[in-house]
Amino acid sequence: MTKLLLLSDIHANFPALEAVVQFFSDVNFDAICNCGDSLVYAPFPNETLAWLERNKVHSILGNTDRKVKKLLKGKTFKKPRLPEKRIMYTWTAEHLTSSAKRHILSLKKSKQLRINKHRICLFHGSPADPDEFLFPDTAPERFSELAQSCPCNIIFCGHSHTPFHKQFSNSHFINPGSVGRMFDSNPAASCAVVTIKGESVTTEFFRIPWSIEKMFLALKRNRLPDVYQRMYTLGKKLN
After folding, report:
1. Quick check: 179 and 16 in contact, CB under 8 A?
2. pTM
3. CA atoms within 13 A on the CB side of 47
4. 3-class DSSP state for residue 122?
5. What CA dihedral angle connects 219, 53, 23 and 204, to 10 degrees?
6. Helical H runs in the chain?
7. Per-residue model confidence as pLDDT tens digits over 154-187
8. Which domains does the chain have, with CATH numbers?
């Protein structure tokens, strides 16, 4: 039996990640997988990347990570245009340590693992497009198309910040939701534990409270927009 901790969309919210780690402190996972968007929208990028690297987490790039990577390479991007959103990207790029920069620059858009007879693919959006949003109510035909085009039978994804486990034929699509920035009016961190036993693939989802006060203090200390305090309090996307 193989037990995996599945994370995604941490968005530099290290207090939430810490709460997840503490919650599972007595569990020995065979591996930890992270489907990207590790950075931006919270002021703990270095702590987040250091933890991922230290714990040998299988990580990929998300869309926010890709934009930070562009900034680190001296490039820019068109979207988002809102100043209160753009500052979260520029602030992140400016405050990364040298080791954090090396880590984010080393990541790719996807990754494959093999566990026993199963092939696992990590994507941020979908196997076809890193920016595609997959939801529990996405058309079954779309999931079937993606399953046929993907070489893996277990597909981990993020981006939509919405947890689900959908099975089509022999393919499993699993999204753990967002550790750091939920949109469903529940600010608790979302993650999943995936258990693989023979041909069986099962998923258990968790919502874990975290110290929002730590977030408030860090946002205020770094003079970042007040809207993010409201977002984290409400568990909603407000911009």
Report:
1. yes
2. 0.96
3. 13
4. strand
5. 110
6. 14-23, 45-54, 63-72, 83-95, 98-106, 140-149, 212-221, 227-234
7. 999 999 999 999 999 899 999 999 999 999 999 9
8. 2-234 (3.60.21.10)
